[in-house]
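hey can u run this one w/ glutamic acid bound, need the structure tokens asap thx
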Amino acid sequence: MTVTTRFAPSPTGRLHVGNIRTALHNWMLAKQAGGRFLLRIDDTDAARSREEFVEIIRYDLAWLRIEPDGEERQSARLEIYEAAFDALREAGRIYPAFESAQELELKRKVALGRGLPPIYDRAALSLSDEEIAEKKAGGEAPHWRFKLDHGERIEWDDGVRGKQAFDAAQLSDPVIRRADGSWLYMLPSAVDDLDMGITDVLRGEDHVSNTAVQIQMFTALIAARYSSQQMPRFAHEALLVGREGKLSKRLGSLGCDAFRERGIEPEAILALLARLGTSQPVEPIVDRSALIETFDLATFGRAPAKFDDAELDRLNAAIVHQLDYAEVAGRLPDGMDEAGWHAIRPNLTTVGEASDWWGLVTGPVDTPAFEDDDRAYLAEAKATLNTLEWSPEIWRDLTAALKERTGRKGKPLFLPLRRALTGRDHGPDMGELLPLIGQERAVRRLDRAAA
Ligand code: GLU
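ok here u go:
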């Protein structure tokens, strides 16, 4: 069976770094096996879902180049959920309940007060047909619960957490549908996973107890409707937390827009999120296929993965230093060619900084003030430059000639030249920079510094 994974965001907001990580891992899991990765928009909640977020989600995935092989939308599949609902109801696995939120809360408190787990008491199951009809006639609309098989011990072999077991009797029958007919997440998700041939469900560990419940839904759905389908494998990864060790508000709102603004490359995000929380080292890997090849759920740890902005910045710089001209050409300042990119690239932490450094080539540059002896030295440099044949090796030739003529070496030889030619004490390799500055500008800058 073709490995098929899905990323299933609810379009109620932008993707944050935790969602991006889940999307990435699902994409890598599928790509590694030559399989399919689906984007499933979980938009059954019409009141909170917004089209604008659907578009932003697509845009962000495209920017990250985590391209889905297909897209599905839950809002277009309501009839299918209805049919699945009918089939499960027919099979005696769905029942109506009428308790209000306040009543349920009271039951919960009473149970907790008695030192019992707050499991739904199934009072609605003992309503007779007449009682149900009466309530409906009186204008009460039921919500709907899925009836768990309390006799079962639910077990699965989790791709990250290993053997998992739940006693079904310790779980509440989940509400799957609201009184207004709208769907909660549980049932539509299980229906879709079967319908779309999802082989692997990989998601955050906040879904572990949902999986226990959904396993019984899968079994019931397969028996009632999907005899040709199989239950997917499950894996739950530890959540992503901030450096301070908790799921911070900041992390929950940190997304692609902020990364783009900060000049973070998609490749840096991928390199970090692919390996964070695993036993594999986080490295500035630009080649996605290398990340995909080494992706391995068995290397995922159980402790929360710690996201650190400073680590992302470091990784970004290391990634920028490896990017080819062709990959960045469209984002570089006018006139900056491949040689310019190569000269300046090692000094960058973001591609955006290139225009700042490119200004050293195109000018104007601020000429710092020099001591008398340096001014004389720079006048000598100008004169020497005029006698040399301009070539790609001009920096080497110039400094060699000046060393011989003036006896200077080391810092006194190089630094006044760098400062006169670029206006700064540090920067790109002068050997690469001077040919880009060109003869005319170089002579003018030396002249001005010597004046
Ligand atoms: N829409 C659900 C969520 O965002 C999907 C969970 C899942 O992957 O099954 O939590």
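The longest strand covers residues 36-41. anyway lmk if its weird
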